[in-house]
Amino acid sequence: MREFDYARADSPRQAVSTHGSNEQAAYLAGGTTLLDLVKIDIMRPEQVVDINRLDLNEIETLDDGRTRIGALVTNTALARHERIQSDYTVLSEALLSGATTQLRNKATTAGNVMQRVRCPYFRDGVSSCNKREPGSGCAAIEGHNRSVHAVLGTSEHCIATHPSDMCVAMAAIGATVTVEGPEGQREIDFLDFHLLPGDAPEREHNLKPGELITHVTLDAPLNNGRSGYLKLRDRASYQFALASSAVIVTLDGDTIVDARVALGGVGTKPWRAHEAEKALKGQQVSESSFQRAAEIAMQGATPYAHNAFKIPLGQQAIVRNLTTLTA
Amino acid sequence: MSDHQNNGDSRVETFDARSPSRRRFLKSMGASGLAAATAPAWAQIAQASQQQQNAPVEPQDDGAPAEGEQQIQLTVNGVEHTLNVKPNAVLLDVLRDRLMLTGTKKGCDQGQCGACTLLVNDTAINSCLSLAVSHDGDSVTTIEGLSNGDELHPVQAAFWEHDAYQCGYCTSGQIMSAVAILNDDNIGSDDASVREAMSGNICRCGAYKNILAAVQDARGKMEGAS
Lengths: 327, 226
Fold this sequence. Notes:
heterodimer; A: 327 residues; Uridine Diphospho-n-acetylenolpyruvylglucosamine Reductase, domain 2; five-stranded antiparallel sheet; four-stranded antiparallel sheet; 12 strands; B: 226 residues; Ubiquitin-like (UB roll); DNA polymerase, domain 1; five-stranded mixed sheet; 7 helices; 11% strand; disordered N terminus
């Protein structure tokens, strides 16, 4: 692994001042993305700012009913937290469907938000990849684009899916990302945090140089909401989603009062399906209403040579999840 | 290795596949340094295996760190070490190359195979994706720290009894994951839960059936013991 300078921070302020606006510095939390990519020379930090000692390990219920998660809460701790399991079931299920036991033990909430794409052309270090080498092109568009390539939110410059399951659940729940940076603290709506590739796929998120995620705050859970995460993949465990859905519904008898739908595995960012939610509200629980919403969710999808199956699969992820939750 | 072509100046490493001693020989070179270098190979082998069987790893103290090094305290299998490491030193490599605790294996080196699984403060993690310097003050348990003298840990004994390996390379990672899982009340005791919780430990020989049997058998023995 390449050499880098190392500093261990004791407070968010100190972490931010150590990092400064240095584009060649990187914050280190669980390390499951960063160290992996440094080892294969895709990320090349000159300085690593270790934030593991920061006091950002709490999960707190706020007075307004929201839930504030410290950046360093591990994926395991978050998934196992009593309130997350009961009030944000979709988030617990999403977390436990991702990676492996030992990776979830290391991986953090903020690190999961910041994880990089799994596109093999990004990771191989030699193929054209606009994320890795802006302007070099996208080998995936004409290449093997079956499993970790999107049909929603793609551009002619990048079609890699966002790999996170946790983020899909957060997109459905609604959340705010709190960051601390050289210019102070600010909040970013979770749905605005990740960027579409557009013509600048190397820009993946809304952080300014040196900004550090300190918390993710979940919106208050829907009253009497039922929620679940359904992940469809090539292997039953330890595999990224081909298509997944995070769904929250509230019912009055057989009528859908409110619904939240987000998709994973099919989009270039955690994909909230607002139009599908509108189509569900006020409808009776039925396969036809679910199917209609699912078709709306996948409207505008662009299939590539090997991933056209993701359009019906994404629809099916929604229909089946809704069917289970409303049974 | 031995069938590689010799390209120009590059050296071709060869070894005699019939000799079982290469690994121990290298290990003894690392452990005993130059003093042993002039001794006959068989003496080094005997010395190395004796060290491994009888002597726990001695506490290491590197003294003052050189420029560019970080000093860390690391408790490994109950023994406290003061080590100077470079910032990019990986926990797995420090355990294997500095402390000569080679029971923890390097497989993919990318967090994908689980061969390097060990316990940090009783939690199973991939040591290949861990900077040693990040673990200053932590307590590490490796496969070498499981047995009580000659008495195997129930999970080790169960792997033995159930023949839960073929080549053995993934075994220490499998065992460390199993120990963590059996001590975690949040993970279900049914076969499906164990398979899911162990999915981060890949066995290319495909000994999964026997691994599962060993884990479930050890569960009964650990519950019986407590």
